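Q: I'm a student working through a structural biology exercise. My instructor gave each of us a protein and asked us to get a predicted structure, then write a short paragraph describing it. Mine is DUF659 domain-containing protein. I'm not confident about reading structure output yet, so if you can add a plain explanation after the tokens, that would really help. Here is the sequence I was given:
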Amino acid sequence: MAPLPFLLEEYIIKTDEKINKCNVKVYCKPCIKKIFNLQNNNNTNNNNLNINKRKETSFTSETSSSKVIIRSSSYGVMDNYIVQELFTFLNPFLKLPDRRLLGGRILNEAVNDSNSWMIKNLQEDQIGVTVTFDGWTNVRNEHIMGIVIITSEGRPYVWKAIDISSEHETHIEVMEKTNTILEELNNNSIKVCALVTDSAGAYAASRRRLRISKKSIVFFPCFAHQLNLCVGEVFKESTEFKTTLDKAIRLASFFRNSNNKFFISKLKEIQYEEYNKESTIVSPGETQTRRRPGEDSILKRDIYEIITSSIFWQHINQLIEILYPYCKILNLLQSDKARLHEVIQGLAYIIQIWNNFSDEYLAAKLIARIERRWKEWEQPILILSCILHPEYRLKLFNNRNINYVTMGSWLGYYYHVWTGKHATSILKELDNYRLEVYPFDSITWNQFNNDIYRYWCFVSASMNELGFVACRIFGICVNAASVERLWSCMGFIHSNRRNRLSISKVLNMNKLRADITYNHRRQEKTPIVTVQTIISELESLKYNETLQDNTIDNTINNTIDNTDLTDNENFEVIDSSQESEEEIDEDTNSGDFGNYLQEWISMLEDEKEAFIDLEENENEELENIIHPAINSNAKWELLSLFKELNSPF
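A: Happy to help. First, here is the predicted structure for DUF659 domain-containing protein. I'll explain a few features afterward.
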């Protein structure tokens, strides 16, 4: 920190406590004097605390007229007596709650009010909600199943989190849990239209069985997770691309290493010469550091071989072209408001890319893998989501079997299983839609700013049967990303430093955090982030979200009961003066992402084995059962289903 100006030194108390790498903590001397004078003149105030009786570690700074005692911040802001005295000075009639009250009665009352409001909103959703759940292991090695409910408008609500550590995770237990959740929601008069889970073997097996017994509910895998697995299949089928990615991570780590400043500066010069700007190098995975003395400016042989390899740059350019649409489509599908027509169009666009790929052998293998996934899904409802979109209708389809007559029969099927009634006018309404009779004309559609769900809610007032089916189709959430965000938030609070917190308290805090964050996002109209590469876009979105959530996290942290905190904290303090000696471990970075890819490949193997077992065990069970997910007449080849598609992003 730069020396304080002479005029400020008279009014500032400087300490040795660092608040970041470059700055130290300072205090305003007149403010502190005012607080202590107020304390001495108001000894009868019950809010004043006896400073001499405090036993916690503190630090003192002597001045000519007063003694300043700075308390450790680990006990929370609300218990800091200086904060209490400041608020007493500002408002003598204000009584601040302590951390126990905030983390106890106040937190419980706030969550109860939030739960009541949540149940009311879910009950008012007449179209039906989407239930998503997934498992997670917390810092205490407890296996938690989290449940998030998403309304047809795309609003997520955290329902509950259950400790299932003592239970087996087979399809039987998953089916029992699913039935319990559905029964609980039914008792609360909440309609369920869809259930979305991940692609683990137990969840896949339970979906295949429950969709037969509960036809009124649509069972889907998380399509965002499915696309992630498709990315893993690229590296499983092509060892060249996997090797290229490992080399790229190693190269990026080298140019992010602070010990390689000479080569970093040379890279910046080249960037300015070629692009007239500097681009930040990003490498995936967590970065680990270790101290190492500075090295000579010598380019390592393996790095030199990577840079000078023409094959490496050829493969990396191909890999960018391949992964870019995957990442862009994945961004679309991770949104809470992603719709089914975006799923089928995104997947068809990826197949279209592979169909035009130069390596026909690799393309054929990956297309076959995508077709196998597509075959397992409930295709009629996905195709209907495109047909019932006023902007697409039948314009996108190439297959002659996709027409209003064929899909009209499936509209009648869905209306019957969702309402328990036989349709009386749905085909007539579909014909009006085909003829673009009001309100199905383009002028009406253009007034809804591409909000397909609101459009069909408007239409359903006059087209009851077709409107109901369309609203339900476009009201289904297509991913379980909200559950992943719940785990991320719970992991932020339930960390190694707070590993004795109960699950119920962590869940309550995250419920409030989710409500506050959602309301902030609705109030703020932020512009769309556009960057040159998908990696930079993901990093920018993550950075902006972190900035937005910092204020919320700091507020919620005050509610934590410090009696639940552990005294043993395992963390490393890095001296900023030695920062120049730190080095990014290049091998660790490359190995971390390699392990991540290996996890993808393992998940693909598990999924394949589960799929084979299900086919062997269910051939007899599913005989003579008609369901759109297993009906051979409701299966189309995705490669030939669509015409040439434009980019969906």
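A: Here are two points you could use in your paragraph. DSSP finds 24 helices and eleven strands in the chain. The chain has a mean pLDDT of 78. It's a good idea to check both against the output above yourself.
Q: Great, thank you!
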